[in-house]
Structure formats: structure tokens, C-alpha cells
Design brief:
139 residues, mainly beta, five-stranded antiparallel beta sheet, 0% helix, disordered N terminus
């Protein structure tokens, strides 16, 4: 997945392509470095991509997430398809300190589909990564 656009720079955050990734050399990484910017609202950082899919076809979205720790404030990654929330991964859902598998099944509702990952945290030193993103039609 190529990075198409990242939300505006937000105070005390850093967004980057980092190494090591999971199975690849690099992963998309979000860092909350200090107190959350009050102007950021509930979506301090996001990365999204427009995909060309076939309307009416079912797809598997697979990706891996990494959280550096499990705390009540570590937060989550939210997944949106065409601006509708479809899935969340909480920092404590699958454990911290290693990449974990995620699967979302969905039906494309148009030929142009926006896939978005939101990074939500209140932890002042959070590290969240996503890697190995794929969207594959079901047969």
C-alpha cells in the first residue's frame, strides 16, 4: 500500500516509515511524543489510500499491527472504508511488543474505495505501527 496522504502535522506527533517492519524492511509508524494537541480532536493522525475495487465483490483486508505496550491510554488503530468505521484494534486486544494479524471482510460498494487507518492514543510516548496491508478479493 502506498502512502497517499497523511493528516496535517499535529503537535507532539511523528509519522514516518520506519525499520524494522514486520516481514518487510519498513512499516508505517505513528508516535505520540507528548500531550495530545487540543485542536487534533479525536483523529490526531491518519493514513489513507484510494483503491480501485469492483463494486459488489467481497474482499479480505489483512494487515498487521504493533503496539509498544498495553496500557489504558495506549489507544487503538481504527479502520474506515469509505469514511465508515468497520474495525478497531485496541492496544490490549492482542498483546503488545510484537506484530499481530488482523482481518476485515467487506463488500466494495463502489469501484473507488478509500481505505483509512486512524491512530488514536492518549499515551504521551506511544508507538503504533501497521505493516503488510493487503486487499484481496474472495473467490
Amino acid at each position: 500500500m502506498q502512502r497517499r496522504q497523511v493528516a496535517k502535522d499535529v503537535l507532539n506527533t511523528k509519522n514516518s516509515i520506519t525499520s524494522p517492519g514486520d516481514a518487510s524492511r519498513f512499516a508505517y509508524q505513528f508516535n505520540q511524543l507528548g500531550p495530545q494537541d487540543p485542536d487534533a480532536g479525536l483523529n490526531p493522525a491518519a493514513v489513507y489510500q484510494d483503491l480501485r475495487l469492483v463494486s459488489g465483490v467481497s474482499y479480505n483486508l489483512r494487515f498487521r499491527t504493533f503496539f509498544d505496550k498495553c496500557t489504558p491510554d495506549e489507544g487503538f488503530v481504527g479502520v474506515m472504508i469509505n469514511r465508515s468505521p468497520v474495525y478497531t484494534v485496541d492496544a490490549c486486544d492482542k498483546g503488545a511488543g510484537a506484530f499481530k494479524d488482523n482481518l476485515v471482510q467487506f463488500v466494495a460498494t463502489s469501484d473507488q474505495t478509500e481505505l483509512r487507518f486512524d491512530f488514536i492514543t492518549r499515551e504521551n510516548d506511544a508507538v503504533i505501527k501497521i505493516d503488510n496491508v493487503s486487499v484481496v478479493p474472495l473467490h
